Amino acid sequence: MVVDKNENVLFYFLNLYLEDVHMNLVETSQAVKSGDVSLGIELGSTRIKAVLVTHDFQTIASGSYVWENQFVDGVWTYPLEQVWTGIQASYTQMVAEVQSKYHSPLTKIGSIGVSAMMHGYLAFDQAGKQLVPFRTWRNNITGQAADELTALFSFNIPQRWSIAHLYQAILNDEPHVKDIDFITTLAGYVHWQLSGKRVLGVGDASGVFPIDEKTGTYSEAMLEAFNTQDAVKRYSWNTKDILPAVLPAGQQAGTLTNDGAKLLDASGNLQAGSVMAPPEGDAGTGMVGTNSVRKRTGNISVGTSAFSMVVLDQPLKAVHRDIDMVMTPTGAPVAMVHINNCSSDINAWANLFSEFAAKLGVDLKPDRLYETLFLQATHSDPDVGGLVNYSYLSGENITKMSAGRPLFVRTPKSNFTLANFMATQLYAAFAPLKIGMDILTNEENIKTDVMIAQGGLFKTPVIGQQILANALNTPITVMSTAGEGGPWGMAVLAIYALPGENEDSLEDFLDRKVFANPESMTLSPEPDGVKGYQQFIENYQAGLPVEGAAIDDIPERK
């Protein structure tokens, strides 16, 4: 057989590739054996995910568990039993992938970090017993408390913040309040069970109680103002004592205990002793996962809910009820626009189309289904044919809606096509975010050097990214990790907590080590798209009384 020169070159490069793959497998297997790996766990709104990375920030295995919040007795909640079912399922799936790929059992992990959806209310007594079901960020049941605390502090307190939930329980004379020994967030709860430490990262803590940027912990003046309220003085506990301690990124927040290792790994193979990073909220991991912790940077995370985060280089001029003041994982001030509803209505319509396809004998995989529907949106009219959609599965603070009534509206002359219908779903997903961001740009004149977006909605390239750029009239960058930023970002924070890794600031650590060669794509606003979205948002705002009437007049199904 005669082998020509081209074939020799091909074999040469193929051998190089195979040698490189073999070396990577050998090196990664050794890292697994020695415990030179870090684990990020994130409990999101619809999925719990565990991501294992090597100390060069490469993901080597992952596992996930799908869950959904429940509306029970007027409260959006998740049972804590399912928290551990989901974490253990995710961890077990991840370990199986490690064994399959690298033929090494996972017995040691260098560092671990836990993140979760921010805010909400988890209350426990002195024995560690949960006092009331978990009240998530999605609830709009603390309006009186949020209003009174905002006036008291001259600082915006959103309904979903932990202190708003606590104060509303006090105002409601709820019997459990007298027994409170500890309140925390979901990430803080999981971290507590794994490490025994009642702590929070400063980013997550900033959704519990306002943080003083100078001290890096809860505002003493606001704590004093809260404690001296007549309704609060009735109780024997001191507010400061029942809140988690606050830690910045890079500090160690305890170690994995023997009991914690058993909680995480039901097989019992995992050893205790892993360094624990300060637990963070999904906003903090979103900032890390998009390298958006430096001043004048910003990021947008989209999922069941959505939020934008702009790291400020100047204080806001006024208190805005639609702008939350939170913190980066290192304690820098961030202006946050949070919306309760984003992708859930899109998912509901996609499920309907999937059901219809199944009736025709067509088995559409989710990725193919979403890609097909999203690509159809590229053929829409710039103003989406005059269609309007309100994707409110729950209440929406930005538009002052107290409950959820998903609503699709068209006029007889609307151009009702599949393309316009799907584009309307995407337009609507970003609408409350657009309304909130306009406050920052138009009233506060806040500028950013870059806005980076992440979330599963961007797994289908270009479409959602372009609509978001048009909606906000600003360039939007999406990184290659857009669909999986959160748990990976928490794993990065876990590495940053290791001895010797936090000698640089978090900003420099991310720039120099993590994002030295980022893969990303930036799309700029399209003039026709910007004009079309503006027409849509004007119709959207004009129709808000219709949404309000639906909430008032259409009762929730029993």
From TrEMBL:
<keyword id="KW-0418">Kinase</keyword>
<dbReference type="GO" id="GO:0016301">
    <property type="term" value="F:kinase activity"/>
</dbReference>
<dbReference type="GO" id="GO:0005975">
    <property type="term" value="P:carbohydrate metabolic process"/>
</dbReference>
<protein>
    <submittedName>
        <fullName>L-ribulokinase</fullName>
    </submittedName>
</protein>
<dbReference type="InterPro" id="IPR043129">
    <property type="entry name" value="ATPase_NBD"/>
</dbReference>
<dbReference type="Pfam" id="PF00370">
    <property type="entry name" value="FGGY_N"/>
</dbReference>
<dbReference type="InterPro" id="IPR018484">
    <property type="entry name" value="FGGY_N"/>
</dbReference>
<keyword id="KW-0808">Transferase</keyword>
<comment type="similarity">
    <text>Belongs to the FGGY kinase family.</text>
</comment>
<feature type="domain" description="Carbohydrate kinase FGGY N-terminal">
    <location>
        <begin position="38"/>
        <end position="263"/>
    </location>
</feature>
<dbReference type="Pfam" id="PF02782">
    <property type="entry name" value="FGGY_C"/>
</dbReference>
<dbReference type="InterPro" id="IPR050406">
    <property type="entry name" value="FGGY_Carb_Kinase"/>
</dbReference>
<dbReference type="InterPro" id="IPR018485">
    <property type="entry name" value="FGGY_C"/>
</dbReference>
<feature type="domain" description="Carbohydrate kinase FGGY C-terminal">
    <location>
        <begin position="299"/>
        <end position="498"/>
    </location>
</feature>
